[in-house]
Design goal:
Layout lengths: L3 E4 L9 E3 L2 H10 L7 E5 L5 E9 L2 E10 L8 E7 L3 H14 L3 E5 L10 H22 L6 E2 L5 H5 L6 E3 L8 H5 L5 E6 L7 H9 L2
Parallel strand pairs: 1-3, 6-7, 6-10, 7-8, 9-10
Antiparallel strand pairs: 2-5, 3-4, 4-5
Length: 210
Amino acid sequence: MPDARFFCPTPLQANSRIELPEALAHHALRVLRLPADAAITLFDGRGGQYSAVLRIAGRTALADLGTREDIECELRGTLVLVQGIASGDKMDWVVEKAVELGVSELHPVAAERSVLRLSGPRLDKRLAHWRAIVQAAAEQCGRNRLMRIHEPVPLDACLTRLTGPTLFCHPDGDHSFAQALRTIQDRLTLLVGPEGGWSPEELALAGRQG
């Protein structure tokens, strides 16, 4: 059975001892019920990972880190996803699968047909929720870098941020996905609509942006 993997939000250093953050310690000791001296793996999102040994001192969880393991599981190119915000569970699933598929950045878009509307404290809470899903998915799939999630914006604002080849996914598109990929090399952005699809106005906007 592979060692349990954990994302640690503080920078890690080889051959050192650290106190594990409260949430990480709770997950390791209370949820997974790992014993003292269990072998674990830690990563801080900056690439690479560290084999470590779990230590328990009273109510405190510590980790003795070994050497840094230069392991990367990233795609050779850069894959960016622009996703029209879907309803709760569906959007959670999209975030999880995007991490597993190697997406580097996810731009949630408040599309015209998005059912879920976010602002203020509700937006902050949902972003924190999505970022927790990113961490958990990275722990499970072996990635040592975290997918970045941007704050949701309307499509027109998102399009101004994008660089490189960009494909607008639509059932009535003029080209197949295979045809569109022929000219793509090391960077690709995909725009995918919410459950109701992109509106005619959004389709026209994307067309004007090329």
